[in-house]
Design a protein that fits this description.
Elements (H helix, E strand, L loop, with lengths): L2 E8 L15 H5 L7 H17 L4 E4 L7 H6 L6 H11 L1 H6 L12 E4 L9 E5 L6 H4 L2 H11 L6 E4 L16 E4 L8 E6 L20 H10 L7 E5 L2 H4 L10 E4 L2 E5 L6 H11 L5 E5 L6 H7 L5 E4 L5 E6 L1 H4 L1 H10 L6 E7 L2 H5 L8 E7 H6 L8 H14 L12 H17 L7 H4 L1
Parallel strand pairs: 1-2, 4-5, 7-8, 10-11, 13-14
Antiparallel strand pairs: 1-15, 3-4, 6-7, 9-10, 12-13
Helix pairs in contact: 2-16, 16-17
Length: 445
């Protein structure tokens, strides 16, 4: 039986816009109110996914959310026809309209936490949709996210789905963006690292003073219980709160792991040396911690380039490479460091650059755009095959984007009912293309 890590990338939605909704995400705030290009964003993300498929990796596609979210706007007291709901929201609470038009589901690293069958007691792949309660515009995602995940991983013999954790600050959960799995081989039992920003209970542990810590220890432990993980194959690590205050809103902005490699910044955790010692104590086999010194790459350079929001992947040959945004090439310190990295004695052999600038401008790099799912060949065959990216699906999706997406979108365009109609028409067609069924509420109403 073969084992590997598949990537499921989120398609960028038709309402991709720059509303600056994510407090604590520097790139998102800096891009507020700029004109976006939904068509370019969707094509950049899709091409990144196709690049990995062409490298021989298992690659899937996850559908975006339906936006504008008319149902949520109606729950908030706006009424009448859809056009009237949009106009009322724009006039009375434009920030709510912008939140209900966010295309943030493109960052599927936040969609859920995933534990592979090699780690779980029941031998199934477990998914827990993230509640994302820290940000309103993301907190409304998980019902549709759950529906899409269930329609994609739809064989109950192999996949177990859990609802999002209770929507309370005690259980703030941001999904796989704060979760990394280390292993010798994908089919072997691994060590799952849950990185949290704060404890919900009173604690003398340091906490950020400026920006919110989005992941709680309590949420991470609840997910580990739901996924039937043992103490021996879990480790709970606190993120450095000083870095959260500098704009490191998720762990995947400052660290990334794959197989027996952890690639992280010198300031990533409260005590890096202690963290590495605990990993080495629990990890079975050779472990390669790669710490990037602040003297080589500052925290701000890491944030601006998204050096750590890269994908560490193993090619079918066994070679480990980094999939990095072209922003890393354009940052002198980061580019010089990557040139040195591939010459050092570690498993990483090369860097492959991809252009995802539309996503980067909104605060998400290559790693944000994908949900990692370790599978064996039997489990991959049980996935909804219409969602697996190949040449045919790539061509169909490119044509679908050309047909339905605008090439510029301003914040003022969100009140336009025709955008809602365009989006729903596009997504209805997409669910047929990906054979998802009626995963959107507008299809069931």
């Amino acid at each position: 039986m073969k084992h590997f890590e598949a990537n499921f990338d989120g398609l960028v939605g038709p309402t991709h816009n720059y509303a600056g909704l994510s407090y604590g995400n520097v790139a998102s705030a800096n891009s507020a109110a700029l004109t976006s290009n939904p068509k370019a964003a969707a094509k950049q993300g899709l091409l990144k996914a196709k690049t990995l498929a062409d490298l021989g990796l298992a690659q899937g596609i996850l559908a975006p959310q339906s936006r504008p979210d008319i149902n949520t706007l109606r729950m908030l007291g706006f009424g009448g026809t859809n056009a009237e709901v949009l106009k009322q929201a724009a006039a009375q609470a434009p920030q709510l309209l912008q939140a209900c038009c966010s295309a943030s589901s493109m960052w599927t690293a936040n969609a859920a936490t995933v534990s592979p069958s090699a780690d779980t007691h029941d031998g199934k792949v477990h998914f827990t949709a993230a509640n994302l309660i820290e940000k309103f515009h993301r907190s409304i995602e998980h019902p549709t996210t759950s529906a899409i995940l269930r329609a994609t991983f739809n064989d109950k013999r192999y996949f177990c789905h859990h609802d999002a954790l209770p929507a309370h600050p005690t259980f703030g959960d941001e999904g796989a963006a704060n979760h990394t799995r280390l292993c010798q081989e994908y089919g072997h039992a691994g060590l799952e690292l849950f990185v949290y920003g704060r404890e919900a209970k009173p604690s003398d542990r340091p906490q950020p003073k400026k920006f919110p810590a989005r992941q709680t220890l309590e949420a991470s432990k609840a997910v580990a219980r739901l996924h039937q993980l043992d103490d021996d194959n879990t480790l709970f690590i606190q993120q450095n709160p000083d870095l959260i205050d500098q704009g490191v809103f998720h762990n995947d902005v400052i660290a990334v792991g794959n197989k027996n490699v952890l690639f992280y910044h010198q300031q990533a955790f409260i005590d890096n040396a202690e963290v590495i010692a605990k990993i080495q104590q629990k990890f079975d086999g050779d472990f390669y911690p790669i710490e990037v010194p602040t003297a080589n790459v500052s925290v701000q350079d890491a944030i601006n380039s998204y050096l750590f929001n890269t994908q560490l992947v193993n090619l079918p040959s066994g070679e480990m490479i980094i999939i990095a945004p072209t922003n890393c090439q354009e940052n002198q310190a980061v580019s010089q460091y990557l040139d040195q990295l591939v010459q050092l004695n570690n498993p990483i052999s090369k860097v492959h650059f991809v252009d995802v600038k539309q996503s980067m401008q909104n605060g998400g790099g290559p790693a944000c755009l994908r949900l990692r799912v370790a599978l064996n060949d039997t489990e991959l065959a049980a996935v909804n095959q219409a969602t697996i990216l190949n040449d045919t699906l790539f061509a169909h999706l490119n044509n679908w984007i050309d047909k339905h997406y605008r090439d510029r979108l301003d914040i003022d365009d969100l009140v336009d009912e025709s955008l809602l109609i365009e989006s729903q028409t596009a997504l209805d067609e997409l669910t047929q293309l990906l054979k998802l069924g009626s995963v959107y509420s507008f299809q069931r109403n």
